Amino acid sequence: MPLRWASRTRSTWSALTxxxxxxxxxxxxxxxxxxxxxxxxxxxxxTLDRPEVLNAFDFRMLRELARACEDASWDDEIRVxxxxxxxxxxxxxxxxRSWADEGYVGNERDYWKWFGAMDAGVTALRRIGKxxxxxxxxxxxxxxxxxxxxxxxxxxxxxAFIRHVGLQHGSVPAAGATQWLPLLVGDRRARExxxxxxxxxAVRAAEWGLVNRVVPETELDAAVDEIVGKxxxxxxxxxxxxxxxxxxxxxxxxxxxxxHARDWLALSMLSxxxxxxxxxxxxxxxEKQ
Length: 289
Fold this sequence. Notes:
2-enoyl-CoA Hydratase, Chain A, domain 1, six-stranded mixed beta sheet
């Protein structure tokens, strides 16, 4: 088969969407559909914006999250990044409806590709090189908790809760939960959260070290603003390296397991348990409608 070489014509390059240099762009030019990305230096805010499904993430949202984090990392005017959700939820993890509709269940090859976006989104959030704050405005389930744990600090509204339900719905929370919960709350509490699949109320989440502060809904923005203001005053180079050092044990657990998790979870999509778990979740959703 003859080799085909790409022609570097002016029209070809102008059609490319990848940046030519690590330079930030105006937020409105990035064309996001599943997230809202607002830059108000020294702060950038990423809002997971699918409130109709409680901000459950799909492939596109994860890709957009990674791109927004990349842009924030390149913007020297941004000192702090806040992650939050639209509506009454922070994030309830993966959209299992899309897993069924788009054929990931029963298709290990496509699920492996999908999980690559999950890995990239979480990694980009952790690699911004700037302090990150999770503004947990509502319920925080599954992958939503993994996203908030990927942030440096977290402020949670008092009426919310954290929960992992993967073992009931045909998955394993191995994109941050199995790696970081033992570090944050201890081994026995981590097992309780993952194995029992029970709600962890906001006050208990703070007592266990899952979040830094719990505040009434009316005080959420003020609490986040206070933390952002303090973080923005820190020297950026020193802060970036402090984060790198603080991440040592998280990195060790993450890099030692995430590749294995991606392969195993992909293969698990061929199992009866994965199909039954997703199907039962969707059927319960229909019953509630």
